[in-house]
Amino acid sequence: MKSPISLTENHQQEALIKTKVNEKTEEINHLFQTNDVSHTSLNEEMKWLQSLIEMRCKELFLEEETELNVAFEVPESPKSNDESPYSITVNAHQLTAIDRVILALGVASAHYPSILKTFIQIEESSSAFAIEAGGEYNKANRSFKPTFQTALFLLAGKDLSLWSHYSAQLIKGSILLKNDIIYNRSSTEFIHGKIELDTAYLNYFLSGQKPQLDHGSYFPGTLYKSNLTMDDIILEDNVRAQIKPVGHYIKALENGFFKSNDHSFKSGFIALFYGAPGTGKTMLAGILANTYGIDMYHVDLSQVVSKYIGETEKNLEVLFNRLQGKNCMLFFDEADALFGKRSDVKDAHDRYANQEVSYLLQRIEKFDGLTILASNFENNMDDAFKRRIDVSINVIRPTENTRESLWKHYLPKNITFENENLLKHLAKEYSYTGSNIRNIMKNVTIALHDRNETIITHSLLSTYLMIENEKAFGKNQSRLSPFVQKSE
Questions:
Q1: What share of the chain is helix, strand, coil (3-state, %, to 5)?
Q2: Is 79 exposed, middle or buried (0-12, 13-18, 19+ CB in 10 A)?
Q3: CA-to-CA distance for 357 and 364, rounded, in angstroms?
Q4: Closest by alpha carbon to 317, among 167, 174, 180?
C-alpha cells in the first residue's frame, strides 16, 4: 500500500500548498507587465499551470481508501484570443493540451521558477514524490527542473489510460520540439529529458521580438546579412554569366514554378562556388541573397561536424528541418569538410565518415531551397555529389584588368596613387584576389591617416605588399617586383 504520508500530514500538505498558491496568485497577476507587450494570456497560462500543480499534488497524497470518492478534473486551459506573442504562438501552432503544459513548464522553469516551489517542498518531505512527478531536484540550490514526465503527471495524474494517451502524442512528436521552441537533450529515455525553452522564444513572449530562423544555441547556422548589390562586386564577365541560373532559380521558386504539374523537377537547387581563398565566394552568395530578397544562412561547421557517431547527422537534421519550406539560401563554406570524397574503408572511422556523406547525399536532395557550397577546389567534392550539383561556378582569380578595377574600387575618395604607373604596376605584377587588395588598401589608408597624407607611394606600399605576398603565396614569398618610376 503506497501511503508515505498520513491523513493528518496530508491535510498539512494541502494547507501548505493552498497557502503558497494564495501567496503567488497576486504575484502572477502582475507577472510580465513590465513593457508595452501584452502578457495577459501568458499571465493566465501561469495561473492555469499553478492550478494544475495544486490539484495534482493534492491528489498525490490522498489516502488510497479515499481516492475512489474524489474526482479530479483538469481545469480548462485559458482562451488565447489576444494578439500577444504567447497567444500567437499557441494559435499558430495549434498546441494540444500536452504541448500547452510543456510550454507553460518551460516558461516557468526559465523565468518564474517560484511557481515550481511546491514540487521542491514536497520533494523535501517525501522521497516518493519524484517517482510520480518526474523532474530533477537539486538539493544544493533547492531548484526543480521539470521533465516531460512532469507534464504527463500534471495532465494524467494517476490515470494510466491518460498516461498512455498523452505519451503516445509525445512519441508521435511534439510540434514544440519540431520547431525548436522546446528542447529535450536527454541522451537516455525521452520522458526523463528536462524541458528547456529556447531563449529566443522567452524573449519573444516577454518583449515581442520575434525569433529569427537562426534562433537558439543549438542551431548550427547564422543569418548572413549583406547590403551589397551586384554593383559592389567586381567579377570576371564569364563568372557573371555563370551565376545567372541561380537568379533564375530564385525567381522560379517565388513564382510557383515548382508547384506546377507540368514537370517533375524537384524544387531544390544546388550550386557550387569553387576557387582560391579570397576570390569573394561568400560575398557573392550574400549579394545574390540580397539582390533577390531571400535570407542566407551561413552554416557553422564547428557546430555541425562532430567526432561522435551520429551527432553530425543530428546537427544537420536540425538545420534542414528548420529551413525546409522557408524559401531561403543555405550556405556551406569549406564544404569539402562535409561533402568530400568517400574513401576506401580501412577502419571504423572511414566507414562512419562515408555514412555521413551518404546521409548528406540523400538529405540535401530533399531540401526544397537553394544550397550554395563553397570550396577551394572542385575536385575535392565527392563524385556522386558532383552529379547532383545543378550549376558549378569557378570564381576565378581576377585578371589584370579586373585587378586594376579592384585597386580603384578600394581607393578612398580623398586618396590618390602617386601616379598612374604605380596603379598599372600593381595590377600587372601582383596576382592578388579582391580580399588581398582590400587588406592592403585598408592598412595603407590607416597609415596615411596617421601621417595626415593623401598620396599612396610605392615606398609606403612596400611593407604591406610584402606582408600580403607571404599570406597569399606562402612563406618566403615576400619579395617585391621591381618598380621603375617612369616620367610622365
A1: 55, 10, 35
A2: exposed
A3: 10
A4: 180
Q: What is the pLDDT of residues 171-216, one digit of tens each?
A: 888 999 988 999 988 767 788 899 999 999 999 999 999 999 999 8
State the pTM of this model: 0.76
Q: Beta partners for 372?
A: 271, 331
Backbone angles phi, psi at 347, to 5 degrees: -155, 180
**Above 60 in pLDDT, residue 37?**
yes
Maximum distance among all Cα pairs of the chain, rounded to whole angstroms: 110
**Among the listed residues 366, 385, 293, the one whose alpha carbon sits nearest the alpha carbon of residue 323:** 366
Residue 84 has pLDDT above 50, yes or no: yes
Count of Cβ atoms closer than 10 Å to residue 14 Cβ = 15
Who's near 48: CB < 8 A, 6+ residues apart?
75, 77, 78, 104
The grid cell for 153 is 503527471
Q: What is the rounded CA–CA span in Å between residue 270 and residue 432?
A: 29
Q: Is residue 35 pLDDT above 60, yes or no?
A: no
Mean per-residue pLDDT of the chain: 84
Task: Return the exposure string of 423-449: e unless at least 16 CB atoms fall within 10 Å of the residue's CB, then b.
Answer: bebbbeebebbbbbbbbbbebbbeebe
Tell the burial category of 227 from Cβ atoms under 10 Å away from its Cβ (0-12, 13-18, 19+): exposed
Give the domains, in start order, of the chain with CATH numbers: 7-207 (no CATH), 221-394 (3.40.50.300), 400-473 (1.10.8.60)
pLDDT of residue 158: 84
E-strand ranges in 105-155 read 136-138, 143-145
Determine which of 97-106, 288-297, 329-338 has the lowest per-residue pLDDT on average.
Answer: 329-338
